[in-house]
Design a protein that fits this description.
By secondary structure, the protein is an alpha/beta fold. The chain is built from 16 helices and nine strands. It is globular and about 80 Å long. Its cofactor is FMN; [4Fe-4S] cluster.
Length: 451
Amino acid sequence: MTLTSFGPANRIKRSAETHPLTWRLRDDGEAVWLDEYQAKNGYAAARKAFADMAQDDIVQTVKDAGLKGRGGAGFPTGVKWGLMPKDESINIRYLLCNADEMEPNTWKDRMLMEQLPHLLIEGMLISARALKTYRGYIFLRGEYTTAAKHLNRAVEEAKAAGLLGKNILGSGFDFELFVHTGAGRYICGEETALINSLEGRRANPRSKPPFPAAVGVWGKPTCVNNVETLCNVPAIIADGVDWYKSLARAGSEDMGTKLMGFSGKVKNPGLWELPFGVTGRELFEDYAGGMRDGFKLKAWQPGGAGTGFLLPEHLDAQMYAGGIAKVGTRMGTGLAMAVDDSVNMVSLLRNMEEFFSRESCGFCTPCRDGLPWSVKLLRAIENGEGQAGDIETLLGLVGFLGPGKTFCAHAPGAVEPLGSAIKYFRHEFEAGIAPVSAVVPPLARPIVIGA
């Protein structure tokens, strides 16, 4: 998998003015270490934030810029920061970076951590200053061993340069940063499950309220932000609100740029930093190069396995939260997947639901029992052994496991692709329903004594 900021039909040179996240990347794909990062204006934003900006001004700047979470939920970052308590007597606060990137078909945070580890550290340093947090943790997916190695080296470099630790930049502000590798559970991407895991507990989501801003890690105020979200902070502080807003395309309600990608049987699978508001068609044709020879686009997901399927005619939708919502699903992580015409949707959904079922924490009944039920039905349909009513049962599960019906957002994300697949490709599910004459009623099946 490659990362570029231009496609074969649209070559655009990366620059600080247009690509705040990726302009520092090396052409050879190697990591940018401290000396090179500082030579490319690294930590200039942090120095500005510490020397020239009050802590509340940093929060307001991020809020005014319209930065939203890049992990999939899209909650306004400045608003989230504003939920942290104002009481100065609360001197123990935490900043957590959610780097547990386990959404299938998503790898954007991995690139940032492996190739630009100091960008994340600078973003966390500025954020810690704004939130008055004295300690931070990068909760990293355990399989990201290269990212862990690079982040730990970058943390040591920053400490040696006086950019982490005690009295940072002579300001009197202290901030320690640690890299914590997880044990490999998808549910840790949910911020309160992440907090439980960090504390050494079972990774179950917590009930809210109280929210982490009030009661988080070890009962203290905590802010949790995604990797890509935090990596946007330095550019906003360095270059200002108006510039950041100007990066997005006309019509987009989301500001700035976004790491977007396309995988599947496309000619040029990859990852690109693009302005919010580009269309799915631009991403698919100009950057990913369209389908490989001999394959036809059947469907696509706009942002990871937990988003609904769309059809080729939906490619003209703009890639931002509201634009994708208009065609019936969510922007998610912004990394799209192409489904080609050789793929059976029932088999694809069975594979997806097996993953989501396995990764359920098991805390609430709809998710714990409903997802395995969907797998059982899909497996029967896949084998041509489905029974009349199975499709309706699956659609019932989509409703029972939808938003607001479960303890966290795991199950709603799991069933969204299932509901959309049945909506657009119901005939493929119907093909797996056995004729009535072939179905043996339960009471008519032979009973084997001792079986």
